[in-house]
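In full, the data.
>
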Amino acid sequence: MIRVRVPATSANMGAGFDTLGIALGLYNYISVEETAQGVQIINKNAGGYIPDGENNLIYRAMQRVFREVGHARQGLKIIQNSQIPMTRGLGSSSACIIGGMLAANVLSGRKLEYSDILDLAVEMEGHPDNAAPALYGGFCISAVTGGKTACKSIKVDSKMKYAVMVPDFFVATKKSRGTLPQRVPIKDAAFNISHAALFTAAMMTGDIGLLRTGVMDRLHQQYRKAYIEDMDTIFEKSYEFGAKATYLSGSGPTILSILDGGYQEFSNKMRQFFAGSAQAWSCRILPVDNIGAVVKSNI
């Protein structure tokens, strides 16, 4: 039996579109073992429909590794127990892909390095900003060139915590990405480059005062808010209640605020605010996960 624990992730991080991501202390627990034949997939606490056959994302990720290394498998039993909300912008798909690939790598004799697994995961996902922190943990800066992903993972001060605000509706990533323009003015591109660089420097040095400027964005948030009622007001309230930076997590609809204290007070005030909202929202304070995916095996 192989057991894998993969963290939730928050990607894009303001100006860091398809580039910056962080791992959070919320997990998908995956157990895998080879069987004589067939495919058995058991989902626990899934929180939504998950395919239980060969279309299952964990299974598909495992098959991608098996094909890569030439492993002839028999059958598989996969058990998933995920705490990560589906289709909410917290990396639920990346957790499945990374978990499946790590399990398959162990079953097939550990022939792939983590860098190889990241390349395969990015091939499936299309971008690295969720896959990299799911694998390596911490705050990750990633870039893809020629099919290869360069990634740097940075450990984050545990004093910084993350208020994850999740609504009771979802926005499909494909639909959300479809709202983005194919071309942007060079001034907007330059704006995001400078602000993403500033945000990265702030995260690396712990200069919390720069985070609010660093998450300013002109590439995706202004377009995606059409699907998230009261997004601007939620941002305003988060800063009023003490957030150091607030941004749309991934493609949304989850909104994330970075805090350096007053965690419970912030959470209480946001919950009070959400009580008057037309949509039901939750607010949960999470720590950073500086470890990334963890694999335990008895084979």
User: Anything to note?
Assistant: The first strand starts at residue 2 and ends at 11.
